[in-house]
Design goal:
Layout: H1 14-28, H2 35-42, H3 46-58, E1 62-64, E2 70-72, H4 75-81, H5 85-102, E3 105-112, E4 115-122, E5 138-140, H6 145-152, H7 156-162, H8 170-178, E6 181-184, E7 192-198, E8 206-212, H9 219-237
Antiparallel strand pairs: 1-2, 3-4, 3-8, 4-5, 6-7, 7-8
Helix pairs in contact: 1-3, 2-3, 5-9, 6-8
Length: 238
Amino acid sequence: MTQTAASPPASPSQTLSRGIRALEILAEAQQPLTIAELADAMGVHRSVAYRILRTLEDHSLLVRDAGGRVQPGPGLAVLARGVSRDLQTAALPELTQLANALTMSAFVAVWDHAECVTLVTVEPRHNAATVVQHPGSRHPISAGAPGIAIQSAFSAEQWHAAAPGIPYRAEAAEARSRGYAASHDEVIPGVSSLAVPIRVPGGRPAALAVVYIRDAQDPEEVGAALAASAARIESQLG
C-alpha cells in the first residue's frame, strides 16, 4: 500500500488576519481613528488599510463619520449576539437583578486562552458611582476575581492539564473552599471584584462577577448572591 504524505498545514490568510486586527484596534481605541492612524497601528501602508476598511465597511463592521474617522459598526453587534448565545440569554436577567440589588456593575467573563473576556455586563440603574465593565474588555486570567473563579472550577491537577503554562493560583483553592473568589487592586487600581464560576456544559467555565470601588456590604452575602445566580444560570444551560 502506498502511503500518501500528510498535507502541510494551511497558511493563514494575511488579509483576513489584518482585517481582524483592524477590528481589534478599533474596538480598543478610545475614539474614532483616521485611516492613517489605523494604518500606523496595523503596521501597513495606508493603501492596504484602505482596501481592508472598504471591505469591512461593506459588511457594516465599521463606519466612518463625517470627518472620515473610522469606528466599529453595527454589524459587530449582530455578530456579538451569537457569541455564547445561550449563556448571554440565561445570564442577562440574573445580571440585571444583581446589579440593581447590589448597586454594582455585574458581568459575565469567559475564558479565552490566557485571558478573561467580558461577554455581557449590566450596570445598576440611577447610580453614577459604579465601575463600568465594557463587553469585550480583556485582562489576564492570572489577575482578578473572574480568573480566580474560573480556575476554582478545576483542581490544580485539572488546571495544569487544561492550561499548561498558566500557574494555578493559591487563591483558586481558597475560592473552591469559600465558594467565591475575591480580588482587589489587580486589574484596575483601587477596584475590587468578587466572582463565582459558571460551569457551561460542553465548554470551558465562565465567571459571574461584580466590580466596585468600595462596598459596605458583607462579601459573604455578595458571594452567596453570586453563587445563587450562577446556580440558576447553570440550571438553564442544562
